[in-house]
Amino acid sequence: MSETTRITTLDGDKDFMAYVAQPEGEPRAAIVVIQEIFGVNAGIRRKCDLLAEAGYLAVAPDLFWQLGEGIELDPDIEPEFQKALDLMGKFDQDEGVRDIEATIKWARQKSGKKVGAVGYCLGGRLAYMTAARTDADASVGYYAVGVDGLLREKHAISNPLMLHIPTEDGFVDKETQKAMHEGLDDHPKVTLHDYEGMDHGFATQFGKRRNEENAQLADKRTMAFFAENLG
C-alpha cells in the first residue's frame, strides 16, 4: 500500500511531502529512500514499493520542496536532465540532510524499528552525509558524487555504510574513485563495491541507464546489508 504524507521539519515550523510504501503486516524495519537529482519520480517510488514488498516501511522525502514541491523529471529527456542539473546547483545539501534526519525521526516513530537509508546519485552523496551526520542505523549510496570532498567527515561514521561505485562513472572520475578507496577502505564501518565498466545510474529502476546484471548484483548486496544491519 502506498500513500503520500507530510513530514515536519526539524525546526518544527514547516513540513514537506513524502511518498510512503507500507509493507503487509508489521515492518521489519524502515528505510529512507533518497532521491536522485530528478525528484521523487516513478523510479524512486518503485524503489520504495520493492522495499515494501521485502517487508520494509519505505519513505522517500521530497528533498527539492524548497525549490518547488512535487518535482518529477525524466533523465532520458534531455531538457529535463538539464533542468535536474540546474536544480542540483541550487539545492542546499546541508538542509537536505536535515530533512533526511527529520524523515528518519518520522520513520522511527512510525515503525518502532531501526531505520536505514539508501540513496542514488545526489542521494548517494546524501547517504554518505547521512551516515556521518545522523543516527541512521545503516546507509547505502549508489554512485555517490563528490565523496572525496567529504572524507573529513568519515570519523563521524559510526554505523555501517555501503557504497556502490561504477568504475566508468561520468560524474566521478578515476582520481575521485581512488581517493574514496584510499580514504575509506580501512574504515571499519564502510564497505565499497566496484562495478567494472559501469556508468553512473546503472541501477536506476527505469530507463536507458540501467544495466540489468549489475543492478541486480548491487541490489542483492544492498538487501543482504539491510537484512544484516536492520533486520
UniProtKB/TrEMBL annotation:
UniProt cross-references to InterPro entries, sorted A to Z: AB_hydrolase_fold, Dienelactn_hydro, Dienelactone_hydrolase-like
Top-rank taxon: Bacteria
Keywords: Hydrolase
Domain Dienelactone hydrolase: 16-228
Pfam families hit by this protein: DLH
A molecular-function term among this protein's GO annotations: hydrolase activity
Name of the protein described by the UniProt record: Dienelactone hydrolase family protein
Organism: Alteriqipengyuania abyssalis
